[in-house]
Amino acid sequence: MSKILVLHSSRFGQSIKIASAINDELIVRGLETQFGPLNVATAPNPAVHDALVLVASVRYGHFDKLAYDLVSRYGWWLERVPTLLVTVSLTARKEEKRDPAVHSYTRKFLDETGWVPTHTEVVAGALEYPRYNLLDKLAIQMIMTMTKGPTDPETMVEYTDWDRVEETADEFADIVTAARA
Fold first, then answer.
1. Is-contact 55 7, C-beta < 8 A?
2. What confidence tens digit (pLDDT) does each residue in 19-47 have?
3. Percent of the chain's residues with pLDDT above 90
4. What span, in angstroms and rounded, lies between the C-alpha atoms of 148 and 134?
5. Which terminus of the chain is more exposed, N or C, with fewer CB under 10 A?
6. How far apart are the first and last CA of the chain?
7. Same domain, 38 and 105
């Protein structure tokens, strides 16, 4: 049986939690996975992997450079297999920002890379001021001030819609199962 490569690119840990939940649900659905971080050594093996899940956080409006590198190096493979991109962004704490078709950071990433994932989802991350260093805390507070979000430096809020994360995993499991048939 082939495996789904499930990768996470996280700045503060929420993307790891989301990727892990998706990975767990894919396994519950009877699919085999390989789970790990997106790093410089990440390489899908077409002889082993027949699908990709990339859960990537957005920090200050940008995806990790390694996400761009992955798409650049393996775009030929991504065009041939089922793929799922899950963008993790605090802007998605607002309902209207969860639509991948209008989420500006997701659109920019996909436009710049030319990647057209089989399925795309945008989910909200977590706001955990006490975990951030001073520079991150101040930058995030500035962004939250502009977007009318919480600025109290003691705020710890998880905005992730875990039901939607599970639904996304189930939807992708259906896509992979259909592609294999």
1. yes
2. 999 999 999 999 999 999 999 998 999 99
3. 82
4. 20
5. C
6. 12
7. yes
Beta strands 62-63 and 83-88, pairing class: unpaired
Tell me how many domains the chain contains: 2
Task: For residue 135, give the nearest of 62, 63, 59, 64 by alpha carbon.
Answer: 59
Whether residue 31 is found in the same domain as residue 91: yes
Phi first, then psi, for residue 8 (nearest 5°) are -130, 145
Same domain, 138 and 57: no
Domain match, 30 and 45 both: yes
The answer to whether residues 38 and 64 touch, using CB atoms and an 8 Å cutoff, is yes
pLDDT at residue 146, rounded to an integer: 87
Of how many residues is the chain composed? 181
Expressed as residue numbers, the domain containing 144 is: 127-159
Per-residue pLDDT tens digits for 41-67? 989 999 999 999 999 999 888 999 999
Domain at 172, CATH number: 3.40.50.360
C-alpha–C-alpha distance, residues 57 and 89, integer Å: 6
pLDDT, greater one: 128 or 96: 128
**pLDDT higher than 70, residue 1:** no
